[in-house]
Write a structure and sequence with these properties.
Structural class: alpha/beta
Helix content: 40-55%
Strand order of the largest sheet: 5-6-7-9-8
Number of strands: 9
Amino acid sequence: MWGCFAPLWKNPRLNIYASVDSLAMDTAYRILKQEFKALSNVRFIPLDNPKKKEISWDDPRIQESLRYTPNVASIGLGISGGEKPQYGLELLNEDITSVVMKASLLGHHSCNIRECMIDAQAVGHAKAMWELGTKRGKSPEFIQKTIEDLAFEDACYRISESSARAIIEHARQRGFCEGEDIGLIRVPVLDRFLLLNLFRQADDGFLVYEESKGFQYYKDVTGKLVIQFGWTKDGFWYIAPPDKGEREIRADAAQVMLEGKYLKALQKNFEIQSKSFCKRCFCKAQRIY
């Protein structure tokens, strides 16, 4: 597969289709344009996506551009599903790497700190951004400011600027301190990614309320919200039954949050003991040999 892309300047033509619907996608698109701008055989084809729906290779705009050159090398930035061209390559966000790093690899591009932070945001949200910033020796003030700025930029691909600013302001009131419970946060508009991009302690669990969508919880590691309390699972998010009152909903969330912390503490302790056991075994083996 990669053979048809390298070296790019020897290929008759390369089409790069882009669905720019997030900050990471936009950054990856800009990286490729910057690194390939000197190559006349590379054609960039941005695909408008006002409805924010997934775009597949079967999209009429892609099919029309491939009608007379079906064997042209193609890169789909944010494109997945459908009948991929024979020499097609998909660049998508995954759990271990984002489109930013994939585009950087493809274009031999050295990422600056902003691009690295956007990559961390796409892969692991605020928690990963804190880890990266700390590793790079950045101050807490720099890291928090960057997190809020990039969270706002990314959210504006999905919601209005005013809504994004309002959510960030509500989040500030809850606090961003590690180890401190978020608890319940009420927002004027619910944007799940924005909340995860703001709170590094999000994995500890929190409850969010938005008038039209009701109560939602992120994220239950106990399984009780669905099995015992009748909530609906949607990925890592859980939607409260519409007929439940706020007091009961908050009690459900408080219980799974407490038990979730206990389970995580047990897991962490187990990992520490396992490492210690392996180290002792290694030392004994060294003495034997």
